[in-house]
Every structure is written in structure tokens, then in C-alpha cells.
Design goal:
Helix content of chain B: 40-55%
Structural class of chain A: alpha/beta
CATH superfamily of the domain at 2-56 and 215-403 in chain A: Methylmalonyl-CoA mutase
CATH architecture of the domain at 2-56 and 215-403 in chain A: Alpha-Beta Barrel
Oligomer: heterodimer
Radius of gyration of chain A: 23 Å
CATH class of the domain at 2-56 and 215-403 in chain A: Alpha Beta
Strand order of the largest sheet of chain B: 2-1-3-4-5
Number of helices of chain B: 5
CATH topology of chain B: Rossmann fold
Shape of chain B: globular
Radius of gyration of chain B: 14 Å
Largest sheet of chain B: 5 strands, parallel
Distance between the termini of chain B: 18 Å
Helix content of chain A: 40-55%
Largest sheet of chain A: 5 strands, parallel
Chain lengths: ~525, ~140
């Protein structure tokens, strides 16, 4: 960041020729709550120059097929100048099943690439030097295993572990509250999350061990609830790390967040401005963090999600454009804009490219990124920011009083509230109280096509045979030894499991085998039936 | 519609979420709507197998089974659930919802699925659909 802040800022002008200043402030300086960009409490953004130094990262999410196909795709992207890779995993890999497991039938390689063992990770990154790229894995329940595999590939390439960079999502609390890709009960899940955070802090200084995500929103929560639940998850992780004996300033700068942005433009802007303030105060005042890096709320987001409609899909381009403008006005760090056909199909080349173009148009054709926090000082936006702050902290205080986010999730409080909100929204949609163009307002009569993922049975069979072949050809005595040691360590409640998982991965134990050993010790989560 | 003979008893519905997919917003919204309409509703939670769905439905004397599938696996799940019901000689009508392309709907109906709803369906339509299926099942039972 330091480098980017030293660069001279570009001089921007309007089409009429007047100068656009980097920053506008009221005479007599800003109110304390608003402050300056890059300064506590960060209402106006976490860096002093924001997009004038560099616009947000445009990270489009993709991943498909076999490890070989993913490798080809990654090489193509790298040759085209992309430096950040993003890996989507199939559901069996996310839930700890091998490609030949009965639970995996029909799901192998469907919503992402299937990874069974280190051999697959080696294939994916064949010929890609891991000190030259940064890789983001959307993975939670098996995040520790995939992280260990990534580190193992680096070791085999001769790349020092200190030099690998990337992110694992590794946020299990939101799986219990909204996304549903849990494996173990809540307590051992928290243990694994903290194991990864601690391990990265000590051994992988350039790797982000968690991205605390707000899937609550897509499951039905309001923006204030989304913010409150997600920040409360953050609080739970910070507490768990502190309980583990870690110093706040050692890990807090590596926490990052991920949110949803819908079309309620001004409320979204206010939400992000308010959250930065709330997080900064929490870290400084409640947790006693001392460095500015620990106070900064680093935010990535998706524009789209449940705000998109299957009906009249081209309307979604208008929606994601408004959403992308909101996050640009709010000063986020990284943005994924969904394709217009995402509500019902695998994005086509055209829809995927158009989604990226939406971001580029907002970033380069409009003047929204030419001055920092352009909506600051608007009576509406400042009042809404204050109101959102109050609404969010009220919910967070309530969660704290109920014993914190872990307790609230265990008792189904969050799940019930989200289900109620989703139901309310659907009734409002059915009655027309919430207007959605093309759905309940100004509705066309034509039937829209739907394109769904159809399983590819041949490649699923090949992947299943591949993992069987691996089990027959590896040094099984070594694999079993490593798995036994892992199981023993899991039974002791004090050991960080990352080094044992790494050893198991190096002995070519599979995702399913490692997860099975942990299931044996931890048990599995009983799904919530609350609605 | 005309009240079924057994109307003294509430309609009992099992809402099932089979498969690995974790998107159950729709299943829960439908479950809430059915409860609001006066029915007794059991929601299975995520990753429920057709086996458990069928035995729970029989054990709990459910009048209708609702299955939510967004992963594209609707056809194989429908077949497995119908086969299990037949094997146990149980006649519980099934209603499906989720992401189901129009071209697949005819095939699902031919297999024996009673009703199919997509994202565009209103809660009222779904509640009405469950009532119709339950009434038909009670009629056939007499």
C-alpha cells in the first residue's frame, strides 16, 4: 500500500474543464465521525488516496471441469495479463467427499473443479510458479486441507512458503447461518478456522487465512442484519484467536470481509461507510488493537446475488450497474459483478464479458472514481450512515447479550430470523409491495429459457477411477501413518492441526480420507430444521 | 375449493431438501407459507437423502412431500424418491420446486410428480397446489 500512496495523484477534470479535487471537505474540517480517508474511523475509506491511486480489484469468479482444464484456463488467463487466480471447487470437495464416494454421485466437477488429493492440486498449478500469482479459494469446511495442498505444491516447486499469497474463505460460521456447506459441529469448525489463522500468521505471512462473508443477505437478511451478523462473526473469530493466545495486531490486519450489494443504492453506500466505522471502533476500543492496519475493514463484494431476476434477464445489467456504482461510491477494495444470466444459467462468454465491462465502465467512463468518497456531506447519505450505524450496532449488541454469534447460531436464533425475513420478502414480492420490474411490475408475458448444469457422467467416472488408482499406487503405509497421527492430534484439544494435515496431504491422503478421520473425532453437524 | 372429508385433520407436509446443495431459502419460504396457511410442516434440513425423506413422510403420516432441488439433479432425485415410495407401497403425492427447466417438467410429470413450481411461482399458487394434491390423495384413499 505504501508504494501506491507515494505516487503523485492524477489531475482530473470534468468534461467542461473544471478541476475535480481528490477530496472535498467542509470549511473548518470534517466532523469527527466522518474524518479523513485513510484515518480512523475510516468512514471515508481505509486508504488516503483510494481509487486515485488505483481503482478497485476486478475479480471475476470462475472455475470448472477437471484439474487439467483448470490448468489450461489459468495459463490462458495468466498469459492475458491476469495475476489473481480464483478457484471454484465442486460440492464434494467442499464437503469432504472423494470423487468416488456415494455422496458425490452426480456432483463431481459440477460447480467447480474436483480436488481429491495433492496430485490434483499439482495438475492445476503445473507450470504456474506459485511465487508469481495470488490464488483465491472459495473453500470453507475443507479449507485447511486445500491450504496445506497449496503449500505442498509450492514446496515441490521449490518456492518458499513465505512467498505464496492468496486467500481461503475459511468462514464456517456463515455456513451454519446461511450457506449450508458445513461438515463438523460448530465448536470443532471454529477450532479449524483458528488453526488456519494461527498457522498463516506464523508460517505463511502473505496468505489471507479468512474472508468473513455475508451470505446471510442472500438467504434473506436485511442490509443492517447482514452487516451485523457478519461483523459479529468477525468478533467471534477475533475472540477465538485471542483466546488461543494470539495478539490482536498479529492477525487482525489479515482479516478481510465479503459482502453482498443489491440495488438499494444509498442504503448500500451508507452500510459500507457505517461498517468501517463500527469495525474500527471495535478493534481499537474493545480489542485494544494498536496498529492502523488492524482497524481497517478491508471489503470485497459481489454485485448481484438475489437482487437479480430470472425474468427479463437483460434488466439485470441495469441492476448490477447501479450496484457497482454503489460500491464504487462506497470505496470497496475488490468487486465481483455477476453476469446477467446468473439467476438461471452458467454465464456465457458474452454475459461474463459484459459483467466485467460494467465494472470497467463505472471505473473509467464515469467520474465516480475521480474523487474520494463522492457522496460524503450529502445530508441524506450522512444521516443514513448514522442511522445504519445505529441499526447495525443495536443488532450486534443484542447478539452479544444473547451470548455471541456462536451461541446464537447454535440456538437457531439467526437461522429463524433470516427465514422470517425471506418469508416477509416473498410475501411483499407476491403482493407487489416491493416492486421488482419484470417480475411483479411492468411484467412481460414471455417464458424465459433456463440453462442448468447437466452432470458429465464420463468425466465423473474418470475422476472416480483416478482417485481409486491413486489409492492403489501410493505408499499406503505412509498415508495411514500420517492419517493416524492426524487423528491422534485431533483428539488432543490443544494441538494446531495444520502441520498434521500438511503431512497427510504430502503422503497423498485424499480430501475424503482426511475429512473422514476428523469426522470420526469431531462428529458431524446436525442440520438446522428451523424455518 | 371443497374441503376434503378428513378436513378435521390439518394437512401434513414434509418439505425435503435432498442433495449436497445448500441453498434452502426457497424451501424455508415455502415451508413458512404452508404453515401460515394452517398446515403442519416438517422441514428435513439440508442434505437429506430420499431414503430419509420417504421414511419420515411415512412415519409422520404426511399427506404431501415437497422437494426443493436447485442443483439440476431433479430427475434422478424424483426417480429415487418415487421408487422408494412404491417399494413401501405408500401413495404420497410429490411436489417439486427449484430450478427446473420447462423442457424437463413434462418428463417429471410423466414419472409421477404431482406438481412443479419454478422461481416465478407465487406462494399462493404453491399453497393451492398442495391443497389440491392432498385433496386428491384423500379422495383416492377413500
Amino acid at each position: 500500500m505504501a508504494e501506491r500512496e507515494k505516487k503523485p495523484l492524477p489531475e482530473n477534470r470534468t468534461r467542461s474543464g473544471t478541476v475535480i479535487k481528490p477530496l472535498y471537505e467542509p470549511d473548518g474540517g470534517p466532523p469527527a465521525d466522518v474524518g479523513k480517508p485513510g484515518e480512523y474511523p475510516f468512514t471515508r475509506g481505509i486508504y488516503p488516496t483510494m481509487y486515485l491511486g488505483k481503482v478497485w480489484t476486478m475479480r471475476q469468479y470462475a472455475g470448472f471441469g477437471t484439474p487439467e482444464e483448470t490448468n489450461q484456463r489459468f495459463k490462458y488467463l495468466l498469459e492475458s495479463g491476469q495475476t489473481g487466480l480464483s478457484v471454484a471447487l465442486d460440492l464434494p470437495t467442499q464437503l469432504g467427499f472423494d470423487s468416488d464416494a456415494p455422496d458425490a454421485v452426480g456432483e463431481v466437477g459440477k460447480v467447480g473443479v474436483a480436488i481429491d488429493s495433492l496430485a490434483d492440486m499439482e495438475t492445476i498449478f503445473q507450470g504456474i510458479p506459485l511465487d508469481k500469482v495470488s490464488t483465491s479459494f472459495t473453500i470453507n469446511g475443507t479449507a485447511t486441507i486445500l491450504l496445506a495442498m497449496y503449500q505442498a505444491v509450492a514446496a515441490k516447486q521449490g518456492v518458499a512458503k513465505e512467498r505464496i499469497s492468496g486467500t481461503i474463505q475459511n468462514d464456517l460460521l456463515k455456513e451454519f447461518g446461511a450457506r449450508g456447506a458445513w461438515i463438523f459441529p460448530i465448536a470443532p469448525s471454529m477450532r479449524l478456522v483458528v488453526d488456519a489463522i494461527q498457522y498463516c500468521t506464523e508460517h505463511l505471512p502473505r496468505f489471507n487465512p479468512i474472508s468473513i462473508a455475508s451470505h446471510f443477505r442472500d438467504a434473506g437478511a436485511t442490509p443492517a442484519e447482514e452487516a451485523a451478523y457478519t461483523l459479529s462473526d468477525g468478533v467471534a473469530y477475533v475472540k477465538a484467536c485471542v483466546d488461543r493466545g494470539m495478539k490482536v495486531d498479529a492477525f487482525a490486519p489479515r482479516l478481510s470481509f465479503f459482502f453482498y450489494t443489491y440495488v438499494n443504492f444509498f442504503e448500500e453506500v451508507a452500510k459500507y461507510r457505517a461498517m468501517r466505522r463500527i469495525w474500527a471502533r471495535l478493534m481499537k476500543e474493545t480489542f485494544g488493537a494498536e496498529t492502523v492496519e488492524s482497524w481497517r475493514l478491508r471489503i470485497a463484494c459481489v454485485c448481484g446475488g438475489h437482487s437479480l431476476t430470472k425474468a427479463e434477464p437483460l434488466n439485470n445489467i441495469a441492476r448490477t450497474t447501479i450496484e457497482t456504482m454503489a460500491v464504487a461510491a462506497a470505496g470497496l477494495q475488490s468487486v465481483f459483478t455477476a453476469a446477467y444470466d446468473e439467476a438461471f444459467a452458467i454465464p456465457t462468454e458474452l454475459s461474463a464479458r459484459t459483467a466485467l465491462r460494467v465494472q470497467q465502465i463505472v471505473a473509467y467512463e464515469t467520474d465516480i472514481a475521480k474523487t474520494i468518497d463522492p457522496l460524503a456531506g450529502s445530508y441524506f447519505v450522512e444521516a443514513l450512515t448514522d442511522d445504519m450505524e445505529k441499526a447495525i450496532t443495536t443488532i450486534m449488541d443484542d447478539i452479544e447479550q444473547k451470548g455471541g454469534m456462536v451461541r446464537c447460531l447454535e440456538e437457531g436464533f439467526i437461522q429463524r430470523r433470516i427465514a422470517e425475513r425471506a418469508f416477509e420478502y416473498q410475501r411483499d414480492l407476491d403482493s407487489g409491495r416491493v416492486p421488482v420490474v419484470g417480475v411483479n411490475t411492468f411484467k412481460a408475458q414471455e417464458e424465459e429459457p433456463i440453462q442448468i448444469h447437466r452432470g458429465d457422467e464420463a468425466s465423473e467416472r474418470a475422476k472416480a477411477e483416478g482417485v481409486k488408482r491413486l489409492r492403489a499406487t501410493r505408499d499406503n503405509a505412509a498415508t495411514t501413518r500420517a492419517l493416524d497421527t492426524l487423528e491422534q492430534s485431533a483428539r488432543s484439544t490443544t494441538q494446531n492441526l495444520m502441520p498434521r494435515i500438511y503431512d497427510a496431504v504430502m503422503a497423498y491422503a485424499t480430501v475424503g480420507e482426511i475429512t473422514d478421520r476428523l469426522r470420526k473425532v469431531f462428529g458431524v453437524y446436525t442440520p438446522s430444521t428451523v424455518f | 375449493m371443497a374441503a376434503p372429508d378428513k378436513s378435521a385433520r390439518k394437512i401434513r407436509v414434509l418439505v425435503g431438501k435432498p442433495g449436497l446443495d445448500g441453498h434452502d431459502r426457497g424451501a424455508k419460504v415455502v415451508a413458512s407459507a404452508l404453515r401460515d396457511a394452517g398446515m403442519e410442516v416438517i422441514y428435513t434440513g439440508l442434505r437429506c437423502t430420499p431414503d430419509v425423506i420417504v421414511s419420515t413422510a411415512i412415519q409422520e403420516s404426511c399427506d404431501v412431500i415437497g422437494l426443493s432441488v436447485l442443483s439440476g439433479a431433479h430427475e434422478s432425485i424424483a426417480k429415487r424418491t418415487l421408487d422408494l415410495l412404491q417399494a413401501r407401497n405408500a401413495h404420497v403425492p410429490i411436489l417439486m420446486g427449484g430450478v427446473i427447466p420447462p423442457e424437463d417438467r413434462e418428463r417429471l410429470r410423466a414419472l409421477g410428480i404431482g406438481a412443479i413450481y419454478g422461481q416465478e411461482a407465487t406462494l399462493e399458487e404453491i399453497v393451492e397446489g398442495v391443497r389440491t394434491l392432498a385433496a386428491r390423495a384423500w379422495e383416492a384413499d377413500k
